[in-house]
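Chain X:
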Amino acid sequence: MSESKPQRAVGVRDVAARAGVSRQTVSRVLNDHPDVAPDTHARVVAAMAELGYRMNNAARALGTHRTRTIGVLASDALQYGPSRSMAAIEASAREAGYWITAAFADSGDEASVTAAIEHLRAQSVDGLIVFAPHARTLGVLDALRIGIPVIILHAAERSDFSVDQRAGARVAVATLADAGHERIAHLAGPADWLEAEARAAGFAEELAARGLPAGAVFGGDWSPRSGHEAARAVIASGATAVFAANDQMALGLIGGLRAAGVAVPERISIVGFDDVPEAAYAWPPLTTVRQDFEELAHRAVAQVIAESGSAVVAPSARAGSTGPTAAAGPAGPTAAAGAAGAAGPAGGAGSEGGAAPAAGVGPEGGVGPEGAVDPEGGAAPIPPVLILRDSVVPPPL
């Protein structure tokens, strides 16, 4: 019986010989050095592929002081937004030739957040992306001397990059108002979430801009159960429409209203937020506001890489992207219009004296307006996209 001998790992010397270049040139290619001619770079990359060369990140880190690894600190990662962002960050990092390592913390426990950050720093990550849905997490970050690039997400206006939460809420409310509703309630997210706070602010701002009475606000915890439990209070309020701060609560509310004998949308219209996969298949299919988590992740990863001093390997399709791109879904009207001065589902005009911030509107997807640079020099928030389905109709007579 013959024994197979272990094969020697392919090294830089082998790649250099196959490509017909020096070892220094191979090293420059591995370290993203700009002073390599394009044809030489292509020849070295081809040689690596032919030989099955595997880069030794530990050895590379010794020479470059970079590990090509991004740390992600997440709290409440089971919620739809953070979980989608986590997947999108991993995909965007991989597309740029990076990997992520994640740590999870209890956002209500400062010691837990601090320990998670220290764990990630011990992995010699090139930078951090931190989900900070609660102000408490931001407080911990402010108190630490981290020493590497840190990008904040899911902290509404306090994020480095964000989807415009207020604009999304205003578009949702404007959609209901344009359909003729005047008694609009809000099923809010947890009070200690910054994004829930921003959506509640957008709700109040759009009502005020239209001269509509302040709507009733009911507290939820993001779960379908809390939406279901809010149904009787919503009925008692006399509201003919509800903006729910996320789709799970909206779907729970639909179930609770139906259990109480209230038809949706004939008696109460509903708009959600996030566009979870189940929203298109609910009954009725749920009108909602879609966030572009992929663009959010792309911006965050690119910024971490840029701030860490690494060359960015631009993800092909999304390089230069400024606004969300949404694909067609399984159901929905063939034409739609939204807030911000456009005609609404019932043909109404946008708000007077204070139009909602612009957001893209489209049948099962549409494209938001092109992004821009904020007047103060920062990146403008990513515009949300209204997805019109069948859960909004004019109020009962």
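Chain Y:
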Amino acid sequence: MALLTQEVDPGEVGLDAKALDRLDQYFAHYVDEGRLPGYLVAVARGGRVAHLTTHGHRHRAAGLPVEPDTLWRIYSMTKPVTSVAALLLVEEGKLSLDDPVGRHLPGFAEPRVYVSGSGADLVTRPADGPITVRHLMTHTAGLTFAFYRAHPVDALYRDANLDSAVLPGSDLAGTVDVYASLPLQYEPGTQWNYSVATNVLGRVIEEVSGQPLDEFFAERICGPLGMTDAGFQVSDEQAVRLAELYGETEAGGIEPIPGLPLRGRPRFLSGSGGLAASAHDVHRFMELLRRRGELDGTRLLAPETVDLMTSNQLPGGADLRSFGSRPAHDEPGNDGIGFGLGVSVVIDPARTKAPTVLGAYGWTGAATTTFWVDPRHDLTVQFMTQVRPKTSHTMFQDLKRLVNEALTEA
């Protein structure tokens, strides 16, 4: 186990300690109101942690506090890790961003696209072109989630028992085979729709590398980067540090809910959302990206590869809000935000709903976790808690505003 610690006073790296105190007070109020169990926030500049706060509980009923070594279900913050894994294979020449997915997963060799109707009257047609690895990484493959309930294809996912994106009792290979049997919502490469695509990418990684996804992550990413707690399962020793997962109640409070099955190796290895990690692990991963592919003498990716990953790849250079009113597009702050290879990217700061800069990138998780890298200010930020919200909130926008107010040097 490695522990994240504060390494430098805020003033030494151009941050205002009083403004950071306001940030702490703001989120402590969420805890005091019973809207969060507890949280960890860390702000680093130039790779040095200048602000680290823990507050509240990782397990309220047991009275266990949030501590720097607390383990968190990072859910969709797994996706950038999966993207790095795929890019390792791209750099080795074993995979190409423009490979048809069907080359590696034959079930996707002849995709069909939704035309009209629903249920028994649903009409599809052959896709004009293949789904590519790039489409998976940018969520432009035409795949979806069952829980959107916004399109007839979403209903087909529910009919196929994919309500949680996982076929009950199945592994990654079996679940991805079911995805492949369903029609696409749209022609690959034409629209953005946040989806199960990164699970498919995880399966591609398994096929190309010849390793299960958890082994590939451990050997090629987590081990080399010193992400000592990150993984798809927690040991008996780690379990006491794992935060309880909560969900919002109708009354606006929180209550414990079931989380990822992390005790023992899971049958389903989700490249979309299966990892647990500590703040130290997340910091190490952010540092890999901030330093453009290298950390402490270990280079995983070329600088140009990280630059590609963190640049907007959406059709026509559009932002996320440009692709309609489906649930994934309506999140607060999607105006002015593009999408790279597994991370969101600021492409028009003036249109966003929170202070930010051109080129800042990162992603969030379903349990109200987030991270971002701000290249202009050489800044990295992470926020960790464990609450699955029922509705959209402005918490992350407020976090960005409060961090921005702490900057005293450009």
